NAD-binding protein
Amino acid sequence: MEIQVVGVIGAGVMGVGMAQNLAQTGHQVILVDISEDILNQATQQIKNNIRFQSLFQKTENPTSPDTILSKIKFSTNYKFLENAEFIIENVTEKWDIKNRVYQQIDTICSPDCIFAANTSAISITRIASITKRATKVIGTHFMNPVPMKPMVEVIRGYHTSDDTIVTTKQMLAQMGKDCIIVNDAPGFVSNRVLMLTINEAIFLLQDQVATAEEVDRIFKSCFGHKMGPLETADLIGLDTILFSIEVLYESFNDSKYRPCILLKKMVDAGLYGRKSGKGFYAYSVS
């Protein structure tokens, strides 16, 4: 079954990337967020992303930003999701917020609509439990920036059906992406390993074993990583890193996931990384 209409909830960095990717692959997109200001910023960001992308992907007849934007409906009203065949949710990684969103869309969307949670930490089984369509709830952990990353970590919840997995794989293929399917567990595969690595790299900085530049250079030069763990933390957002490691700590009750004090201090100081202009490195913020 080819998916035509996709709802994207949350117009942050990931939601903007998804809406752009979906529109560029011919889908009709409904992008929903809580304020017009956020949606206006999302519109401008998509324009900027498309122009930036065109500099690296030379084509004879590039699609104009306006053509791509014409496939996206921006709205603060969840009601417009009623005709969506597939929903990708990207709201803040806070349970009380996700809880409200899923209870709301469960009453609006068609019973056949699949709900895909783009989460890095929250249990897919738990999300499914607050809906009346547990077999149609699945996890899709996209990587940033979405249009440029070809692989998605897909998470099967306890009740996720085989049909839902098949449809999700088809949907991702339409977006030009492959996927790896894993079972539901805190942090799944990618974040269970990545957050532990980043947290330990911050401990190295706190213990004055090495500078941020030295830590990242070792991973890039010795292991061939494109980005070091602290550069990756700045890209993801240190607030998101802290939340994810706290979820792992709470879920496993294992001291190896205890959040580094320096990480907590930086988040308290508003040093979130790229999105705030400063984290382990300094950035220009437009």
The chain has two domains: 5-183, 190-268.
